[in-house]
Amino acid sequence: MTPEPPPHDAAPGPAPGHGTGPAPGSGAPARAGAAPPSLTRSPFESETFTSATFVTVGRGPLLALAVVWLVTRAGMLLLLLRDSLGIGGVAGEVHSLYRHWYGLFAQGTFPPGDVTWQYPPGAGLVIMSPGILPWLTYFQGFVLLTLLADLAVAAALARADSARLTHGAWYWVLGLPLLLHLPLARYDVQTTALAVLALLALKARSPAAHRIGGALAGLGALVKVWPALALIGTPRGRTTRDAWASAAVTALALLLTLGALFSESLGFLRQQGDRGVQIESLGGTGLALAKALGAWPGTVRFRYGAFEYVGPYVSTIGHLALLLTALAFIWLLLWRMRARDWTEATPPDAALAAVLLFTVTSRVISPQYMIWLLGLAAVCLTSRRTVMRPVALLLLPAAALSSLAYPVLYLEVVAGTWQGLGVMVLRNGLLLAAALLAARRLWTSTVTT
């Protein structure tokens, strides 16, 4: 049996608050004879950058964190109620589509033959969840449960931050509003909450916590697939066995239960396989550039619940995206086999790198995908040993640009104007840079050369 690496907390060194020198950013003079700070390291890796650039979550600032959460979420809720920004209609997916699916679930079936239903059967649990609040309308119940999931993520991150000079909770609380009101009208916040809680459980020393983390990741995988990647960086040995086995048992048990209670539980596989190249994907951006330059004669068409490109070479680009996804998966397997240096930050760092790679190689990069990435980056930032700080910073402007792309300038994006095209090139360029940087930093920090 391969022994697991010792936890980070067991590393030698002074306990927090008992060091011999002043805390970074405290304003106290440096200790005489102390070595000057290294000038060769990246500023993203310095202790000064970590503690001085972001607010520390502690007993006092928790109230500030709560106030900021309330203010920002009130603003997001106001935007959602007005729902007139840009193209508008952001809440329409909850009002019509989710509500329609809810009615089908009440009849004991997943949406039969519905090309817009492209989600694993566990997603039905989220769609049905407003039913537990019968005194509210479906829309009110959905938004309330989304806010509660958002609050659970913020609270869990704050608890993880409480003993360290880190800033994961602030990153989530301030980063999510960059997507405006979209997070409140999609079920990706609930999915992200499962992945975040799974990764935080994996940081504990208890095997029971590892099994809980695996169960949460397995549940998330049956809701929207990608949370399974939360387990890609678990340390070898008992942690991996406990977490992966728990995930498999949870996912299989839920799949069998939903299959027994509802018909058409696997119908999503047919719809998912028929998807084309969405206008917001990297491949779609390439086609938009070619069309703007007069080198491609294709058009945009609304299919499978999204705007996709139709014309020559589209199927080739779609197949290329699938090939790149497969290559990304092979690279992740190779990394896992070669990785030798594990820290407490490795699981969330690996999860963020994996989801970024699968995002940029996807035929679909919807703006709500940014919710996943912000949540995973926030978990990374709960550890001082993370190597993903510059990646997390790249994701913030990418999220803001995603809001410009939808809903603010969505008509420009669909029409392929230079304004809409510029937003998509910048957003997807940032995502591609973040994915490549995350892969490189994950490899160099864990693979012994």
TrEMBL record:
Pfam families: GT87. It is found in: Cell membrane. Residues 1-15 have a biased composition (Pro residues). Residues 25-37 have a biased composition (Low complexity). The chain crosses the membrane at residues 135-157, 169-202, 214-232, 244-262, 310-334, 391-411, 417-439. Residues 1-43 are annotated as: Disordered. It is a multi-pass membrane protein. InterPro entries: GT87, UCP010361. Keywords: Cell membrane, Membrane, Transferase, Transmembrane, Transmembrane helix. Belongs to the glycosyltransferase 87 family. This is Glycosyltransferase 87 family protein. It comes from Streptomyces roseoviridis.
